[in-house]
UniProtKB/TrEMBL annotation:
It comes from Thermoflexus hugenholtzii JAD2. GO terms for molecular function: 3-hydroxybutyryl-CoA dehydrogenase activity; NAD+ binding. Residues 8-186 form the 3-hydroxyacyl-CoA dehydrogenase NAD binding domain. Gene3D superfamilies: N-(1-d-carboxylethyl)-l-norvaline Dehydrogenase, domain 2 (1.10.1040.10), NAD(P)-binding Rossmann-like Domain (3.40.50.720). Pfam families: 3HCDH (PF00725), 3HCDH_N (PF02737). Pathway: Lipid metabolism; butanoate metabolism. Keywords: Oxidoreductase. Residues 189-285 form the 3-hydroxyacyl-CoA dehydrogenase C-terminal domain. The keyword Cell wall biogenesis/degradation does not apply. Belongs to the 3-hydroxyacyl-CoA dehydrogenase family. GO terms for biological process: fatty acid beta-oxidation. InterPro entries: 3-OHacyl-CoA_DH, 3-OHacyl-CoA_DH_CS, 3-OHacyl-CoA_DH_NAD-bd, 3HC_DH_C, 6-PGluconate_DH-like_C_sf, 6PGD_dom2, NAD(P)-bd_dom_sf. This is 3-hydroxybutyryl-CoA dehydrogenase.
Length: 286
């Protein structure tokens, strides 16, 4: 299917990533249906989209009229069945294979046969997600980066059975959304997380060894390498639960100690210290 035939984009999940994906799709002129599992999460997600668009207006990236038009394109729902109206659905639920497989099986049942089913997974296999559908050639990875409206990359992940036509749709979508594409084979962590995850886990190991304070590690990376955020600030930003899911998934496949989550990370997630979104991670947020 060509991009000009895509009118309605579905987004499964309205968390940090889902809300950003819904926002950029609405701003690009698509009708967007975004689904959450309960009223409270849906309201929070829609509030996050509105706040992000308001910030874009404040920064002069969007006019007030464009914001209202984009907002008018977004419809929240609690029903998976509403994805029957979609030509493309992007899944952005929790980074857990059984949960994602269930979502893909349901989408396959509900969506029209021409619809492309994409996952925003940051580490899991696209081929495996495709295997629970009757349309593996239309299953693809669209990995966005947080914050989605700001980060200019779209990592497209090609499963073993993904068709060339589906990849072409991904490239065209990226152009509409003003994102630059990189293409990765379906291997754990793709390009970005294959390199990012060992680096972040090593920062925790450095802290646990007592080599330096987390503030100094962050300052060293920010000022010594010109990264916008040091590793601890970035981990809090990504979410420690998400980081742990990704690390565990990568360790499971590679069995390489570079991807083994340090115990401190696991304990922090168990304590509910998930980073910025929960008010506490490595740092504390007001
Ligand atoms: N819509 C459009 N533009 C927006 C916006 C919005 N909602 N909010 C902010 N912006 C723009 C601003 O106008 C500004 O642009 P200019 O420089 O042209 O003025 C730019 O975005 C930066 O915004 P701020 O000044 O508000 O913020 P900042 O300079 O403090 O940067 C940041 C914030 C972009 C988050 C920066 O700290 C950063 O890049 N951090 C690293 C983020 C990162 O690495 N993300 C990837 C995480 S990994 C991941 O997502 C994938 C995974 O699988 C784990």
């Amino acid at each position: 299917m060509a991009l000009q035939n895509v009118r309605t984009v579905g987004v499964v999940g309205c968390g940090l990533m889902g809300s950003g994906i819904a926002e950029v799709c609405a701003r690009a002129g698509f009708q967007v249906i975004v689904r959450e599992v309960n009223e409270e999460l849906l309201r929070k997600g829609l509030d996050r989209i509105r706040a992000s668009m308001a910030k874009a207006v404040e920064r002069g990236k969007l006019s007030a009229a464009e914001m209202e038009a984009a907002w008018g394109h977004i419809r929240g729902t609690l029903r998976m069945e509403d994805f029957a109206a979609c030509d493309l659905v992007i899944e952005a639920v929790v980074e857990d294979m059984p949960t994602k497989k269930q979502v893909f099986a349901e989408l396959d049942r509900i969506c029209p046969p021409h619809a492309v089913l994409a996952s925003n997974t940051s580490s899991l296999s696209i081929t495996e997600l495709g295997s629970v559908t009757r349309r593996p050639e239309k299953v693809i990875g669209f990995h966005f980066f947080n914050p989605v409206p700001v980060m200019p990359l779209l990592e497209i992940v090609i499963g073993l059975q993904t068709a060339e036509e589906t990849v072409a749709l991904g490239r065209a979508l990226a152009e509409r959304l003003n994102k630059t594409v990189v293409i990765s084979k379906d291997r754990p962590g793709f390009i970005v997380n294959r390199l990012l995850i060992p680096y972040l886990l090593d920062a925790i190991r450095l802290l646990e060894e007592g080599v330096a304070t987390m503030e100094d590690i962050d300052t060293a990376i920010r000022l010594g390498l010109n990264h916008p955020m040091g590793p601890f600030t970035l981990m809090d930003f990504v979410g420690l639960d998400t980081l742990l899911f990704i690390a565990d998934a990568m360790f499971e496949e590679f069995k390489d100690p570079r991807y083994a989550a340090p115990p401190l990370l696991r304990r922090m997630v168990a304590a509910g210290w998930l980073g910025r979104k929960s008010g506490k991670g490595f740092y504390t947020y007001a």
